[in-house]
User: Fold these one by one.
Assistant:
Number 1:
Amino acid sequence: MFITNIDYVPGLKITEHYGLVSGSTVRAKHFGKDFLANLKNLVGGEIKGYTELLEEARDEAIERMILQAEDFGANAIVNIRFSTASVAQGAAEIYVYGTALKVS
Amino acid sequence: MNEYTSGLANLLVFVVLLIIGYCVGGFIEKKHFNSIVERENKFLYFPVINLPPQRLVEIGEDLQIENCFFVSGLVVIGEDYFKRILGFLANFFGGRLLSHESLLDRARREAILRLKEKAISQGADMLVNLQLQYLSINKETGNQNATNSVEIMAYGTALKLKI
């Protein structure tokens, strides 16, 4: 599966396109991690627990997008974009979308 | 008398937290900036641009692309107690908030560095179409214990070139 955020796959020809595919996930903070984050807030700096949490969330959103594209029979997703929103106190939605293509 | 001493104790705790935030937070920030500058110099050879590759070809660059893949780097950085109080004061007076400018600056540079490290470790030769995205975490107004932190994500397409 080719995934790019430019609008084509270099060196390959587009043979078919399947329209928009997307994946999303809503994540809330983990209580234990949040406790550590509050301690960390006294001295500042990177909050590793949150970094891991969001990295996982982004990977999951991309994973879901790939599953959807595979259902269509696509082998590439181009021009992917991320969109995020805080939906509730301490929770965030991560949404990723792109165009599914068949390239050869 | 009792109320007076408890008020004094509260003030003392506030001042101690402020001093800890200023000293330790400042030390951590300085250390982080040193490591950022060091790694930026180390990865200076790796080109990162925010143009799509066809623009480079139009300029006249000879690009022979063998492979491409998606990479991303992200970081979450929180403010310290001293910065939080400064931010609180800025709500009244407005103006530039230098303390938070440096916070965002180091978060952004760290995210781009992580992106570069990831791309290099996966064997890329250059990175095109860099984009940045922000997510502000748990910014509740009116809550004194709110953790103000920002997530910055840098992402782009890594290219492997034919040599």
Number 2:
Amino acid sequence: MHWFANPARFVRLADRILPVAMLLCFGLFATGLYWALILSPADYQQGSSVRIMYVHVPSAYMAMFCYLVMAAAGFSTLVWRHPLADVAGKAVAPIGLAFTGLALATGSLWGKPMWGAWWVWDARLTSVLVLFFLYLGYLAIWGAFDDRSKAARAAAILALVGVINLPIIKFSVDWWTTLHQPASLFRADGPRIDPSMRPPLYLMLAAFQTYFVVIFLWRMKAGLAALKLQALGAMPSPKQNHEQRHDQHHEQNLATRTEEAL
Amino acid sequence: MGHEFFHMGGYGGYIWAAYGLVFLVLIALAWLSWREQKINGLRAEMLKAARSRRRSDHAEKDRLETPS
């Protein structure tokens, strides 16, 4: 883990991964979308509306994955004070927020034709809505503190407390009677989804995952550059003050010497 | 690929709204993230270059001012 502690090394590694991940992302989205919208069959009960699954399930999966990354970053902020951890947490939160919003919106667009309602207050939907607000709260905390390390610690604590919501989301469909269908892919007894619908779903899951890698690395680079800017400019370091004093000293020296010469 | 592709057995409105929304949000997030890392990176580089230029100016001035 501490190999990544050097930001310059991290950025070099990111620059090597980014082109590959971008290429993979485009390829996976192209084949995934083609398969999801054209090749894959309509469901025998749901008709073509089942195609919403190919964006809904990856969005929901990524919503939870991002939260796990954010919580892991929070943990390493609090326990190891890893220098990149709070940058990572701050970088991943907007991605998680976007995916959670998409999971809710696409679910709503699937729920209307299938259940007859845009929204129901059942356990799965409500716990995902809570996830959405956890992301918002996390970002709000980052905005609320002037002191960066205080913000990082407060945000990390929220991220860790909120982890309890993840198993609630996952098992909500088993613990409570809900309208939402139970897990059909990530099950202990294997996937329970028609084989013809598996390839596009796996492709779209992989596409979303590589998209995450690209955006996460960009956001990490942005965050690290912002830290560097802060170190270089916004907050004058003692060394800088010394330089400025040196400057003034030089100018005075020059002025007196010119006067003497004249 | 004709009318049926867009109609989607009557679910076209829901399906295209869902895919369109996903597309818009993912593109917007990508654009914002890319721009931020580009701008921050360039600003950091410029600041660093300005710093080292000033430092070399000092060195040059010192060299000229030191009586040989």
Number 3:
Amino acid sequence: MSKKVLIADDTEFFRTALKDILLGAGYNVVGEASNGAEALDLAAELKPDLVILDVVMPVKNGLEAAKAISALKLPLKIVMCTSLGYEPIVEEAIRSGASGYIIKPLSESKVLNTLSSII
Amino acid sequence: MDVSKYKTLYLQETGEHISGIETGLLALEKNAGDSSVLDNLFRHYHSIKGMSASMGYEPIALLSHAEEDLLDKMRSGKIAISEEVTSALLKCLDATKALFERVKADEPLDIDISPLVASLKSAAEGRPERPVQPPTAAQPEGEHSLRLSSVMKVEGRLFDDLLATVGDLFMTLSSFKSLTHGSRSVEFKNGVHQLGKSVNSLHDTIIFARMLPLEDLAAGLPRVVRDLAKETGKEVALTTEGMDISLDRTILEGLGSPLVHIIRNAVDHGIEGPDERKVAGKPLPASVHIRANVKKDRVVIEVSDDGRGIDREKLKAKALSKGVSAARVESMTDGEVLKLICLPGLSTAETVTSISGRGVGMDVVKDAVESFGGSLEIESKRYLGTKIILEMPRTSSITKALLVEAGGEQFLVPISRIEKVVELDSGALEYGFYEYAGRDIPIVSLAGCLGIRQEARPRRTLIVLDARGTLGGAGTKSLAGLVVDDFSDEIDAYVKPLLPPISKLRGASGITVLGDGRPVFLLDVPQIISKALKGS
């Protein structure tokens, strides 16, 4: 069974790039969210194995979403995805339940190595 | 990671963010206290920064990074919002726009942004600085001319819509045409004739406007080959020929990933390492050659390498291990054996490398090519090299086709496939062969193939077809006969691609709606014939 992944990023650009990398490596991308609130709803609905959260997003940012999703107590892992300079936020996210992080710009090896070390 | 494929998305989203910034900055000048405006502006800059860094557009990334920092400070109240700050940001926006236009036009991003970045940094530190002049002079100072260029940029999708409309016009035209058969009005007949000429000329113009040269696609290939060669430690030179040939942009776009995949296979599996080539007395660097030429309304693209060729025995062994019966494998012609490489999951690479053989194989290439009405052939000489031949239509959508009938159902057969149409006594069609041009060709009943019940009738129509693209033997015609009950008009059909789930339907390559509203399938001749002959 391929792992089910939910992607949350406010740009279609990164959602598409991330999805291409994941699909190419055999992951099953079950949903895409463009903000933190959508990510929370979709996480509860789709029960993915993994949620990838961008930090800077409208409505609910990635950190808020990570906290809310962790609070659902679902059997899933959260990976934060952000640009350089947001290490403090990522660290806070990890304290609140995220398992790892990816620093943009994305590269196939960066993404896949991070994910395979987590699930 | 090849990011060029994300450029369209980049342009689209960055364009949206740039207009968002413009609106935001202007709103900020009017109402400095609105925190949601600051939040939105911050996100716009942040998104532009991330995407530009990923695409490798460094000046845009650096500039938006400095802007983002400044906005963050404004957001947290560390910096007061002043007119100086907003006008500095507007100046930077002009530079971002200028850079963005260069990205669009594939021009180098050689605008010096360092004074702007410095001005943003000092603003972020709360030191006002003299306003910086924008570094580009897209228009000479003080000359705001309003002349328009004679070349227009339009969304490619507009042409899709136009073509769809012309397709509808063709359908309307065909119902008018059938009305002229029963009409005595000369004016009406002339009018319909004139309308037909206009619709045709409109169609030709749109088709022409949609054409792009292969060069546009091939421009990215030297880089692909270079990277692959580097990664595999091989020496490869890419040469091309006939890249000035134009194709419909949809087809050209569809060719992109199959072409890259074929080249990957060639470099990764076909071409030997430098040592092995030296031992074999082969030249270095190895060669990958892409050659395109036009054949009637189709383009033939050959990708050949001078590598080690395909190992038939290994392919056969793989096929056996995948459950293909031994009898079947033994009875295969050489062309059929080579085609095994297109079976899903049948890559002969012994190890899965990071470059190819990761589950996406030649089967995907074949499917992609066929979905555009193209065909794929393989030629390979052991130790000498492999040649993959793609034959694609140059234009899409309007296909000349013959309307045929079998078992009370109507179908379309592409005219480009038809060699001859003959009416024969049904008895003459019972043997499974028909003598044509001095040799026996296999014949197949369309109704039989599709499982349609057929009434007995004294005479039927045999359509002699070129079913190339099915039985191997690239380049040579592969004739077969298709038996139908009857045939009627030749029509210009606006063929729409099949969408899931009916895209899984074997034997049909598209669908069209006739003038009277009936939907009709366009037959995929190679598929129908090969399926019928394999089944027998």
Number 4:
Amino acid sequence: MTPLLSVQGVTKHYGARLGCGDVNFDLWPGEVMGIVGESGSGKSTLLSCLSGQLAPDAGKVVFDTRADGPRDVLTMSEPERRMLARTDWAFVHQNARDGLRMGVSAGGNVGERLMAVGARNYADIRAQAIDWLGRVEISEDRVDDRPRAFSGGMQQRLQIARNLVTGPRLVFMDEPTGGLDVSVQARLLDLLRGLVREMGLSAVIVTHDLAVVRLLADRLMVMKGGRVVETGLTDQVLDDPQHGYTQLLVSSVLQV
Amino acid sequence: MIRISDVSKSFVLHNQGSAVIPVMEGASLSVAPGECVALVGNSGAGKSTLMRMIYGNYLAGAGRIMVGDVDVARAEPREILTLRREVLGYVSQFLRVVPRVPTLEVVAEPVLAAGGSAAEGEARARELLARLNIPERLWSLSPTTFSGGEQQRVNIARGFAHGFPALLLDEPTASLDATNRAVVLELIEEAKARGAAIIGIFHDAEAREAVCDREIDVSGFTPARAA
């Protein structure tokens, strides 16, 4: 078996300042990897480099493509990378407004992704959109409403539907539950976990919420100042942290 | 099935003056299929620490922890994940679940994770929940709002749902009434009968004598404290 994603020595500087340095890991099919660290630790920079939104200064991001096997995403042509981003990848932004078209109806937001990969039959697209809205618990009578009329939690669920409708194999999530109140977070976590299992998705989740990674991630990577300071099984890193920074992070969580 | 040799472990507290606390040294034991071994020793002797190391939850400092043909002390996270799905089960003292997931699904999940069908998982979950006297009207609810004893029983049902060849049990009979305690002891006997290797921590001496074939005193693995 080959890893779905193999990250080798990815480094990004902003001028003289390090964004992320020499990051290496393999992500296997069906695996969920969490990346934690405080603000400014390089988690989001890394996620942007992995998902092709930002060009790193050095390193390789090798993705196991359906057609040609493992290929370095960074050396692909722009159209190839865009196609991959539409068919095999999904990106769930922290702020749903960054991942949605706010002026287009909920159904349109989901349907647009389908049309981008070649769907043309209006009735089919609408039926699939409604099916996906149902899966993320948005009722059918809201299909023609614009996301502007949705609550924050609904917008986030709509963004997830829009991203997963094309059956991607790899999902990047940047603080998917950030800014939502806890009851909505729980609902979203439950939903994500179900989808990951049913669809056999692999995912990379960036968050600073340790409770979220404990429930969602199989493996964990801890970043500080642009460097990876510790990696391992999620429960092992959280229950028996080895690095001083991770120990501080874990012991700083307030108990409820 | 489980073979541990010369395992040691220290905790290093980087934020507290880099204090090094050695907690285990030269731990060795082995458990055959169909055998149940109790870890005994005073509180703080390292029973839970040893168990957590076997599960890969704590990192071993040195030594070998063979579960089947995987050395947990050296395995990649991916190998440990597979081991936990298929081979090695762990019943902890506390239930940790995603909020909102119904009890029936919580219990069936290990069956699905090990490759069983949804129907198999549900059938097994129904059987175990009924045996452990969880009222059927609660099955469709999330266990997060259940009482402590009910949560513990859901946790046990979940732990026994898949027929793991190796099982770790941390106080499985704690906080249970006599009826349910008897059910748990039956489940342990059944697991032994199908050939599972079991390591358990039982503060309940009667339960220990009922199901365990041997005792291992972990205080023998406690490093001598420099006074």
